[in-house]
Amino acid sequence: GAGVSQTPSNKVTEKGKYVELRCDPISGHTALYWYRQSLGQGPEFLIYFQGTGAADDSGLPNDRFFAVRPEGSVSTLKIQRTERGDSAVYLCASSLAGTGHNEQFFGPGTRLTVL
Amino acid sequence: KQEVTQIPAALSVPEGENLVLNCSFTDSAIYNLQWFRQDPGKGLTSLLLIQSSQREQTSGRLNASLDKSSGRSTLYIAASQPGDSATYLCAVTGANNLFFGTGTRLTVIP
Q: Which residues, other chains included, contact A97 with Cβ-Cβ below 8 Å and sequence gap of 6+?
């Protein structure tokens, strides 16, 4: 595709529910990143995939958060037992390779609201 | 841990003015530095990427400089236009991810 796409664009859920957020990276990009942006803040790193494997998940806040990328393309961020503090914009980015020299391209984000 | 700071947090200028946005970072061991633009409710648009070995990059009315040893970068916008109104984010690249500042919210007044 032309760019990184994310679905849904908005998600409203109730506290305690489970949600899945999807990211389609740019075709051919082997590296994929998830970030979370709270209101008035810059994005914060959650997890980085190189191919199918999570190369760095040090940014995941707790074990309620999990992400997969089973075929090395589309990725899903999964949040269990959602809390109001999880409300934020979740951004996905991809790059050609996972070295720090490569530019990251961002999707439009998914705005998650936990009531 | 890398800390990225952007000053000022907000800036209002009349149309046509030149302006400078500032970014500083605490750890000079970076791969590159990116400047992004974010419109309200939207994702990030990459404006300029400066590799760690470079000193500056230019794109149209935008010029970004990098002084890695002092941990500073500036984004210069020439002849500002109302369409430049947005939040500008600076980010530095570590081994696996970007570290972002909190942004400068720019308003260009017609």
A: A30, A31
